[in-house]
Design brief:
By secondary structure, this protein is α+β, with helices and mostly antiparallel strands. The protein has 14 helices and 25 strands. It folds into three domains: about 10-125 and about 215-265 and about 300-330, Rossmann fold, CATH 3.40.50; about 135-205, no CATH class; about 350-560, Jelly Rolls, CATH 2.60.120. It is about 20% helix and about 30% strand.
Length: about 550
């Protein structure tokens, strides 16, 4: 790197001599671990690529100090340009990888390396603050990231024998441990678990507001620099930042990127997946079998796209080269379990359709969803106790599962439509337009959209971490504004993405609550600085539904006529 730090790498090269386009994969998780199971590097080498796998700065084979995301912009530029200069490289470089290996691609693109020709950042955000503070609430699973994946190598470098140096053992030990004790730890800023080797965690906690401090991993304003197309992929059950990042990036690439090629050759794939690796055999997620169509030969699709971007068309035309077989946008619609080819996102033919929330009587946590607003009761309330938050058992990797176990909680409101007389397709962003109040100065609200089957099971149509808002950030994430207890506020919660065909006889169901542990730190409801607060206070939270205060869910409905 430009400061003299050396990065460790594994290189795959085709058997035959000559010059080849290069593909680069950068990771903090260990290239040796990736090399043990990944088939893509070998397949790519056989298809005529030099493939470089590199540990990022400060991780495993590489020199330097690791601080999450801080050095990836400059290091990405330097490594891409170094790869392009190798004697066996044509000078054309592509990058690939998901999650952290995906984010570092955006960071490198922000530096505009001249030899970067194509990138495939899958399952990533493009906004750093949104990545750490979703809806204004702190993302708690960073504990699950630092402890099993990062700390063991940090201890090894420090010759610290207080814990294992082996990453595999660290993961196993963490999986067996009592994690809830750390998720429940207050105040957040005093969590002892990461004090020694993850100082960035505490820096994040000290910067809850959106500001320029977060620019080190924010790419939202850099799209005018991007000259290369991107291959984007996410899933309806990906981490909440995934589908939002992919769809926002697709539209920004199409509208704001620097070249006609980057605009026209960018692709978007949205499937029924969670935050995971994809293959043709992976067609069941959680409790739902999505059928053979759900399997994706991601490696083959990506290599075909790289061929079209990095190779001379004449050299691979006889090997399936030419125009990419994928449409600009590929959407998997659950329920019918079919792929649809589109040219845009969101779909312009989607009709925003309101389903109003109405109660069925006092002292109940169940209500109805109707397309007409004829409220019978003025409101529905529940007591949210942050000492007993809603707990998502799918939090490690979100998946669809029967929500009836959560429906039984007293702090969950459940709104259900009548059985559908016809099939109903919903594809796009789901929005909750709510009128709310609270006995507290600050609290949270969250919603989940489900498909209620005739047999009674209620399946979530997106990850439960999506659709979340901390009320102090209801007017934007740059500035905190507390509530007045008892006052009614109109809020809008979006950033929930899905595609589902509700079959005839099924019902729509919406859950509303005020916590999603351990995705986010439960709001203490005190209105104080959350990172330093150790006291927790129950709050009575209310959803209002009157003619004037018409709480509703807005669904993007696709006509099938």
């Amino acid at each position: 790197m430009r400061d003299g730090v050396r990065l460790g790498a594994i290189v795959y090269r085709p058997e035959q001599g000559g010059k080849f386009p290069a593909l680069l994969y950068r990771t903090p998780y260990g290239i040796d671990n990736y090399d043990e199971y990944a088939e893509f590097p070998l397949n790519a080498a056989k298809q005529g690529y030099a493939v470089f796998l590199a540990d990022v700065r400060g991780r495993l084979r590489s020199e330097g100090e690791f601080e999450a995301y801080r050095n990836e912009k400059k290091d990405g530029y330097d490594l891409i340009e170094w790869v392009a200069q190798q004697s066996y490289c044509t000078g054309k470089v592509g990058t690939y990888g998901g999650s952290y290996p995906g984010i570092v691609q955006w960071q490198a693109m922000a530096e505009a390396p001249p030899h970067l020709v194509a990138a495939a950042p899958e399952m990533t955000p493009i906004d750093s603050h949104h990545f750490i503070y979703y809806g204004g609430a702190f993302s708690h699973p960073w504990i699950d990231w630092f402890v099993p994946y990062i700390l063991s190598d940090k201890r090894k470098r420090a010759n610290d024998h207080s814990g294992t140096w082996d990453n595999v053992q660290a993961i196993a030990e963490w999986d067996k441990s009592d994690k809830k004790q750390w998720y429940n730890y207050r105040p957040l800023i005093d969590l002892p678990l990461l004090k020694e080797y993850a100082p960035e965690y505490y820096q994040w906690l000290k910067h809850p507001d959106l500001s320029s401090w977060w620019d080190f991993v924010n790419m939202e304003n850099d799209f005018s620099k991007f000259r290369n197309p991107v291959f984007l992929e996410s899933g309806w059950y990906d981490a909440a930042y995934g589908p939002q990042g992919a769809t926002d990036a697709f539209n920004k690439m199409r509208k704001a990127s620097a070249t006609s090629l980057s605009k026209e050759e960018t692709l978007l794939i949205l499937g029924p997946w969670n935050h995971t690796s994809l293959n043709t055999r992976k067609t069941t997620f959680g409790e739902i079998k999505f059928g053979a169509n759900a399997g994706l030969d991601y490696d083959a699709a990506l290599l075909q796209w790289f061929d079209n971007q990095l190779k001379d068309q004449a050299t691979h035309a006889g090997q399936g080269g030419g125009k990419d077989p994928l449409p600009p946008v590929s959407i998997f619609t659950m329920g019918e379990n079919k792929w649809h080819a589109e040219n845009e996102w969101p779909l312009s033919r989607a009709v925003p359709t309101s389903f109003y929330l109405q109660s069925t009587g006092p002292e109940k946590n169940t209500g109805v969803l109707t397309t007409t607003n004829y409220p019978k009761e003025k409101s529905m309330s529940y007591v949210f106790d942050p000492a007993n938050p809603f707990w998502d058992r799918s939090y490690e990797k979100s998946y669809p599962y029967d929500q009836r176990e959560n429906e039984a909680r007293r702090d969950v409101l459940v709104y259900t439509s009548a059985p559908l007389e016809n099939d109903l397709e919903v594809t796009g962003e789901i929005v909750a337009d709510l009128f709310v109040s609270s006995s507290a100065k600050d609290t949270d609200f969250s919603f989940t959209l489900c498909d209620l089957y005739p047999d009674g099971k209620s399946i979530n149509l997106h990850g439960l971490d999506a659709g979340y808002l901390r009320m102090r950030y209801r007017h934007g994430f740059e500035k905190q504004e507390l509530m007045k207890p008892g006052e009614i506020y109109n809020i809008r919660i979006g950033q929930v993405f899905t595609s589902n065909l509700f079959m005839k006889g099924h019902r729509l169901q919406v859950y509303i609550t005020s916590s999603k542990a351990p995705h986010y730190d439960p709001n203490p409801n005190t209105g104080t600085e959350i990172a330093t607060e150790k006291n927790l206070m129950p709050a009575t939270n209310t959803i209002h539904h009157t003619k004037k205060e018409a709480s509703r869910i807005i669904l993007p409905v696709i006509s099938r006529n």
